[in-house]
Amino acid sequence: MTTRLYNTLTRTREELRPLTDNKVKMYVCGPTVYNYIHIGNARVFVFFDVVRRYLQYKGFEVTYVQNFTDVDDKLIKAAQEEGVAVPELAERYIAAYFEDMDALGVKRADVHPRATEHIPEMIEAIQNLIDKGHAYEINGDVYFRSLSKEDYGKLSHQSIDELKSGARIEVNERKENPLDFALWKAAKPGEISWDSPWGKGRPGWHIECSAMARKYLGDSIDIHAGGMDLCFPHHENEIAQSECWTGETFAQYWLHNGYINMGNEKMSKSLGNIVRVKELREEYEPRALRYFLLSAHYRNPISFRYDTIRQFEGALERFDTVVTNLRHRMEAAVDGEPSSAVEARLKELTQAFEEAMDDDFNTANAISVLFDGVKFANDWVAKDVVSKQSLERILQWFRVFGSDILGLMELEPEEILDSEIEALIEERIQARKERNFARADEIRDRLQEMGIILEDTPQGTRWRKK
User: Domain named Cysteinyl-tRNA synthetase class Ia DALR: which ranges (predicted)?
Assistant: First the structure.
């Protein structure tokens, strides 16, 4: 089955055909690390984590690069306000980013390059652009000559006049054209800086990603991705400078996820309505946040509501319960080959899941398939006679699609209870056999205080954590 994705560059759905057979080179713009990330940032990282996982499931060898912008105006301002050095501030929030992403089940990229570790590569790129006439220097600042790229504006699908009307023109700026953007910024007193042919300074925002993408993925890559807010100017400018630098097509496919809204407004720092992941995961199950971020098609806007997250927590209980039920039922199951009916139904579910994901990575539909799997599993758990191997096959299906790809189900080995709890459960089972229900209830209450919930089923007693 062919994977098709929506390419912002062409505004069409296209078949994924990597530059090199069976290998996908993927670059996702990472955070600017001057503060904790918010739930809007997290949508990027969670969704493209799933894209990477799914492509690997499909048999592609994925090289995944996600950068850190660890020097820019925001970092410098925040560091000055806190009275710390820029590298110290960046280090703090890089660590916080990983803490948030680990909680949300986002796997580490193959490479997490930092802008400050790639200054020589950026200087090389900038000098190349100057030599080719695509950039110019004014008093230690270097600007890219946007109109030197004939198709500038092709990603955002705007004309030059439209782009000019939306361009910000800074006071006292002496650019040749309002659309020209900074490749190198001359250092101001007290700012972090590096030596360059144009004097002390630091790189502009856009050149960072071009230099790091080329170093780790080459002149041309397969997928470049990020939030819709990066389409212009960041990604537009990346295309212009990279293609003028290398003479090659920068990226074959451009993917952009939609915004998160708070009520009827877009979530943004300027409106002061952002919600940080660090605070949310202290209040809610992190998997519920991941579920929320995958619950709508990635290109559609999604509205954030606190009560909705609670609903997703409830939905996750269905996933957890079916895993518990399968494992518990296996204890009393008979040995035998997996049922042909199980194999047939799992094949149907697999096909439905792949159809959803191959259709521009529709995670919302893929999650619906997961719930179809839950219903199917519950039907088999309820059967009087079932083979252990059939239940193992169902559990394995959930491991692949619910855990390995979507990251919504937890299928690690069950915890081994400590000896005190094991002894109490065994004592309660014996008390029930002896019809000493008062003692059985007393033990149940004690275990509940310890955070252990007991459930008596026709197949025996099982437990779960609160």
Answer: 352-417
DSSP line for 109-138: PSB--BGGG-HHHHHHHHHHHHHTTSEEEE
The total number of residues shown for the chain amounts to: 466
- Percentage of the chain lying above the pLDDT 70 cut: 94
* Listed range (142-156, 353-367, 396-410, 411-425) with the worst mean pLDDT: 411-425
Cα separation, 211 vs 215, whole angstroms: 6
pLDDT tens, residue by residue, 32-59: 999 999 999 999 999 999 999 999 999 9
Provide CATH code, domain 4-302: 3.40.50.620
CATH for the 316-405 domain, from 1.20.120, 1.20.1250, 4.10.990, 3.30.450 = 1.20.120
> Which residue type, as a one-letter code, is found at position 34?
Y
In angstroms, rounded to a whole number, what is the distance separating the alpha carbons of residues 248 and 242?
A: 8
> By C-alpha distance, which of 359, 255, 293 is closest to 105?
293
Contacts of 163 (CB under 8 A, 6+ apart): 152, 153, 156, 179, 232
| Cα gap 238→114, rounded to integer Å | 17
Which residues does the annotation place in the binding site?
29, 209, 234, 238, 269
Instruction: Summarize the annotated binding site for Zn(2+) as residue ranges.
Output: 29, 209, 234, 238
The DSSP letter of residue 336 is -
Per the CB < 8 A criterion, the answer to whether 255 and 284 are in contact is: no
Residue stretches of the annotated binding site for ATP: 269
> Confidence band (pLDDT; 50, 70, 90) for 172?
very low
Give the percent of the chain with pLDDT over 90: 79
Q: Determine which helix (DSSP H) or strand (DSSP E) holds 142, and give its type and residue range.
A: strand 141-144
**Could you tell me the pTM of the whole model?**
0.88
Q: For residue 435, what are its two tokens?
A: 């019809």
